[in-house]
C-alpha cells in the first residue's frame, strides 16, 4: 500500500492547511468587501452539464463515470455551469445584479505539472444581470484587489485583457470568414509559445490570405492606443473600441489601471465567453495563469434559464500559493497555542488547579493547552515553548491569595489573585488567536 496520494492530488498537513487557510481567508475578506455572497453547489453533476457548455479541453479532462442509478455523472471541473444552473433556476426572484462567490474544490484529469494539478480549489466570483461595461471593470477590480491583499503589487502581477467582440470586429474588418475564427483563436492563444512559422501555417490552412495572416500575427504586439489608431475607425471595430475605452476609464477610476495590459492574445479556452476576457499572470512569466474569467452573456439562456448577461472569474489556490511562496509573501504557520498552563506536581491539588484554570481560560475564548500527563514543572514549560506558546500561566494554590503567575518572555511576572481577573487580562491582551 503506497503512502502517497494519487498523482495530482494533495495531502494538506497542518503547514499546508495553514497556507490554504491564509489564501481562503484573504479571498473571503476581499470578496465580502465587494458585497458578494457565498454559495456552493454539488461536487458531482450530470455529465451533460459539461459536455454541452465547457468546451473541448475541459471535456477531455473530466473525471466521469456511470453511477449505480445508471446516470452519467462527472466531478465538477469548474463551477461556472453549476453557478449558471443555480442562478437560472431562481432568476425571477433573485435581486439583480446577483453578486455571488464560492470556493469549490475542482477536478480535472490534467497532465500534472507546475501550477496544474488534478484537484484544486478555485475562488469563483460571478455577477449576473448587468450588461454594462462598468460591471466588467468592477469584476476585474475584485481580482486585482485580492492581489493587493496578498501583498502583491502591479510590479508583480499583470492583468492581460481582451474583448471577444472587439476581436471578432477586427476579424470581420480583415474579411476573415467566420468559420475560420476558431482556428484564429487557437493561433492567438498560442502565439507567444508557438514558432511564428507554425502560426502562419495554421492561419494559411484556415484560409487566411497573406495580408490577413500578417495582421493577425501582429495582434500580440498591439497596445490599445496602436490598435485604436490602426483600426478604430473601421465600422466593425469602432463600437467595441469605444466600449473598451470606457472600460479602461472605469478601471482607472477604481484604482487598478496600473495593473492592466490590453492583449489580443488572451482568448480563453472555455467555449462560453462572449465579451471582455482576462487572465492574471506574474510579471516574470514564471508561473501559469493565476486567474481567468470574463463575460459570458449567453450561458444562462443556453442552459435553459433566463436570458441574463453574466460575467465572472476563477482564481486557483495552486498558482497563487506558488507565487506567494516565491515572493516571500506566505506568512509562517501560526502557532496553535496562545497560553500554556502549568502546575508543579508538588503543589496542592495538582494537576486539577491547572485544569480548572485552563477550562476558565478556554471559556474566556483563549487558546489554551497544558501537558497531558503529570510532569515536573520544567518539563511542562519546555513542552509549552516547543508548542509555540507566548504566555505561561503557572498555578500554585500554595501561594494563598495569589496563585496565578503569568510569565511572558521579556516581561516581569504578573501575579493574579482571582481567576476572573486572570481571564479578563488574558482575553484582552492579544493572547487569543
Ligand atoms: P479556468 O481558466 O479554467 O477558468 O481556471 C481559472 C483558474 O483556475 C486558472 O487561472 C488557474 O489559476 C486555476 N486552475 C485551473 N485549472 C487548474 C489546475 N488543473 N490546477 C491548478 N489550478 C488550476 C474557469 O474555470 C472558469 N470557469 C472561470 C470563470 C468563472 N469564468 C467565469 N466565472
Give a quick rundown of the structure.
The chain has 433 residues and is an alpha+beta fold. It is 38% helix and 18% strand.
Q: Features of this protein?
A:
binds histidyl-adenosine monophosphate, 38% helix, BirA Bifunctional Protein, domain 2, alpha+beta, Rossmann fold
Could you give the topology of this structure?
Elements: H1 14-33, E1 37-38, E2 44-46, H2 48-53, H3 56-60, E3 64-66, E4 72-75, H4 80-89, E5 98-102, E6 105-107, E7 119-128, H5 133-149, E8 157-163, H6 164-173, H7 181-190, H8 196-205, H9 210-217, H10 224-231, H11 238-253, E9 260-262, E10 276-282, E11 291-295, H12 299-302, E12 310-316, H13 317-326, E13 339-342, H14 352-363, E14 368-370, H15 377-386, E15 391-395, E16 404-408, E17 414-416, H16 419-427
Parallel strand pairs: 1-5, 8-9, 13-14, 13-15
Antiparallel strand pairs: 2-4, 3-4, 5-7, 6-7, 7-12, 8-10, 10-11, 11-12, 15-16, 16-17
Helix pairs in contact: 1-5, 5-11, 8-9
The structure holds histidyl-adenosine monophosphate.
Histidyl-adenosine monophosphate binds at residues 78-80, 108, 110, 116-117, 120, 122, 124, 126, 270, 289-293, 312-316, 318-319.
What is the CATH architecture term of the largest domain?
Answer: 2-Layer Sandwich
Name the CATH superfamily assignment of the largest domain.
Bira Bifunctional Protein, Domain 2
The biggest sheet, with number of strands, parallel, antiparallel or mixed sense and barrel status, is: 9 strands, mixed
Number of helices: 16
Helicity level, as a percent range?
A: 25-40%
Strand content: 15-25%
Q: What is the overall pLDDT average?
A: 94
- Terminal Cα separation, in Å? 39 Å
Give the strand tally.
Answer: 17
CATH class of the largest domain: Alpha Beta
Number of domains: 2
CATH topology descriptor of the largest domain: BirA Bifunctional Protein, domain 2
Q: State Rg.
A: 28 Å
Bound molecules: histidyl-adenosine monophosphate
Low-confidence stretches: none
Q: What overall geometry do the principal axes of the alpha carbons give?
A: elongated
- Supply the helix-strand structural class: alpha+beta
Amino acid at each position: 500500500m503506497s503512502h502517497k496520494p494519487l498523482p495530482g492530488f494533495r495531502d494538506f498537513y497542518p503547514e499546508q492547511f495553514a497556507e490554504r487557510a491564509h489564501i481562503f481567508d484573504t479571498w473571503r475578506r476581499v470578496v465580502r468587501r465587494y458585497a458578494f455572497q457565498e454559495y456552493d453547489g454539488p461536487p458531482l453533476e450530470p455529465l451533460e452539464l459539461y459536455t454541452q457548455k465547457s468546451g473541448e479541453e475541459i471535456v477531455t479532462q473530466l473525471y466521469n463515470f456511470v453511477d449505480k442509478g445508471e446516470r452519467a455523472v462527472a466531478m465538477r471541473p469548474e463551477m461556472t455551469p453549476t453557478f449558471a444552473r443555480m442562478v437560472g433556476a431562481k432568476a425571477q426572484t433573485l435581486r439583480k445584479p446577483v453578486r455571488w462567490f464560492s470556493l469549490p474544490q475542482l477536478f480535472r484529469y490534467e497532465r500534472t505539472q507546475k501550477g496544474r494539478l488534478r484537484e484544486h480549489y478555485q475562488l469563483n466570483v460571478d455577477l449576473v444581470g448587468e450588461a454594462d461595461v462598468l460591471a466588467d471593470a468592477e469584476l476585474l477590480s475584485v481580482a486585482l484587489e485580492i492581489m493587493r491583499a496578498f501583498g502583491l503589487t502591479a510590479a508583480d502581477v499583470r492583468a492581460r485583457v481582451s474583448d471577444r467582440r472587439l476581436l471578432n470586429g477586427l476579424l470581420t474588418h480583415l474579411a476573415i470568414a467566420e468559420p475560420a475564427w476558431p482556428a484564429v483563436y487557437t493561433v492567438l492563444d498560442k502565439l507567444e509559445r508557438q514558432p511564428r512559422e507554425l502560426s502562419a501555417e495554421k492561419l494559411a490552412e484556415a484560409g487566411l490570405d497573406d495580408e490577413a495572416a500578417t495582421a493577425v500575427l501582429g495582434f500580440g504586439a498591439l497596445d490599445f492606443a496602436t490598435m485604436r489608431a490602426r483600426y478604430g475607425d473601421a465600422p466593425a471595430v469602432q463600437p467595441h473600441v469605444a466600449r473598451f475605452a470606457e472600460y479602461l476609464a472605469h478601471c482607472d477610476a477604481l484604482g487598478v489601471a496600473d495593473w492592466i495590459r490590453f492583449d489580443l492574445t488572451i482568448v480563453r479556452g472555455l467555449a462560453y465567453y462572449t465579451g471582455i476576457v482576462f487572465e492574471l499572470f506574474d510579471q516574470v512569466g514564471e508561473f501559469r495563469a493565476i486567474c481567468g474569467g470574463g463575460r459570458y452573456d449567453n450561458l444562462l439562456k443556453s442552459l435553459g434559464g433566463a436570458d441574463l448577461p453574466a460575467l465572472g472569474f476563477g482564481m486557483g489556490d495552486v498558482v497563487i500559493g506558488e507565487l506567494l511562496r516565491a515572493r516571500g509573501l506566505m506568512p509562517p504557520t501560526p502557532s496553535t497555542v496562545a497560553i500554556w498552563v502549568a502546575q508543579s506536581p508538588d503543589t496542592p491539588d495538582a494537576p486539577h488547579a491547572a485544569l480548572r484554570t485552563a477550562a476558565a481560560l478556554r471559556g474566556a475564548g483563549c487558546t489554551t493547552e497544558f501537558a497531558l500527563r503529570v510532569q515536573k514543572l520544567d518539563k511542562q514549560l519546555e513542552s509549552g515553548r516547543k508548542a509555540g506558546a507566548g504566555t505561561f500561566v503557572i498555578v500554585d494554590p500554595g501561594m494563598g491569595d495569589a496563585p496565578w503567575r503569568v510569565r511572558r518572555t521579556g516581561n516581569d511576572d504578573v501575579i493574579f489573585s482571582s481567576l476572573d481577573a486572570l481571564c479578563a487580562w488574558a482575553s484582552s491582551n492579544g493572547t487569543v488567536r
